[in-house]
Amino acid sequence: MLNNPVQSINSDTVLSVNPARGHETLGEVPLTSKADIKKAVEQSHIAQKSWNALGLEKRVEYLNDLNAHISKHKDEFVKRTSQEMGMPNGLSTSIMDDFLSDMQWNNDNAVKYLSNDIIFEDDNEINAIFYEPYGVMGVIAAWNYPFGNFVASCSQALLAGNTIVMKYSEEIPLFQKYLEEVIQSSNLPDNVVQFIYGDGYVGQTLIDQDIDFITFTGSSATGQKIYEKAAAKLIPVSLELGGSSPGIVFEDCPITDDLIETLFWERFLNSAQFCNGMKRLFVQRSVFDEVVEKLSTYAKTKKIGDPMDETVEFGPLVAERQVIKLEDQVKDALDKGATLHCGGKRPDGLQGAYYEPTILTNIIKDMKVWHEEVFGPALPILPFDSYEEAIELANETEYGLSAIIFTTDKNITQKALTDLQAGTVNQWPSHSYRPQNPFGGYKKSGIGRVNGITGFKEVTQAKAVSWIK
Ligand code: NAD
User: Nearest CA to 69 among 158, 228, 185, 150?
Assistant: First the structure.
């Protein structure tokens, strides 16, 4: 077992450890050298010309084949996701299915949204828009939804005729290696998708190469560094960054078991490691105590343990370093007077990056749980007295990824859908994370959108053309 059990990068390998089993070593993958990163980008440029020349319909055929090929290997992807980053097996299975289906939606709709548009015609001439690829995309991704990161970052870009050099987070090298092997054993032409391995330094080295576009998924702090580098190169970016999404429970919403269960999973799914998770909850004062009490009672019923155990719904965090950061955020809140309703500690008897679901009230604004993104299982809950106060609190963040409201009132709903400053706003139980919809953030949650029609357009450059009849 490692003394400091974070993923280890040494001079030539990326080590993978299991956060659920005392950080035992799962394997290792060679670190990609600077020379090999350069070579990958050069090969990507060559591949891009022929990939683009194939035409849209042919690329759709290849991507359909790829989808079927990945589906055949689903079980191993699910296993590696659970072992390497701690996602409970049942969840990684359903998430894999969801993202395969999102990829299929992209394949099914690429011709509709990427074909040339005739936009003007008279007796003499025709004007059209061609949606052309940028070229080689450098893709840098997080670890929290391994297959989802591939689909959201790469699927539309490939259909549009771009090629990819991709680096996942150093937390999941074995998942990445398997994806590379599966893609290499598919029909996809060589070098259309290539992978490189390593940490932020390898990511920076990729950006320094001759790439045409950067797609980044990760923290806002890293996103800002990447944006600066992209500005110096004057290339476009898609930045999918952090969040501190609000949930608002209005007093008209019946406090049912269904509501409590939803509130729990909106925050604690995937051990609370998802960008658009509900990271701050506001509850109208008349129902505040009831919601806090019921949610805390429900949280205590959850079985925490090894994600490979089918009965476990709540696994470890991805790495020890995430637990250490969360412990600091919770301690800071308690030191400043927060009230702890459940959790607030590592569970007894488990070896790994585990932390109990934690609920805090009596929150003040200089607490880290208020003004930092909390990427682990802790939920601050605050009361509010009026609609205006709820919206003001919800928007009082540098992030703007998503927001969710719990009300049956049609007027409140329509007003909140407009007033909340976020890339997606949902009235429960409706939800908008669908392949048809754009996904991305306001403010420091990002630049650009993935998915849907908007996502297709983002990975292309619009060329206006005209010709005489
Ligand atoms: P991170 O920013 O630490 O790392 C993300 C990726 O960037 C990793 O591959 C890392 O190796 C690489 N990297 C780090 N420094 C770099 C640099 N200077 N140059 C180039 N690459 C560099 O983020 P993380 O901890 O892996 O992921 C969690 C964060 O990601 C959270 O903030 C979460 O909200 C966010 N996230 C956002 C979305 C979204 O769609 N908006 C989705 C998933 C995760």
Answer: 185
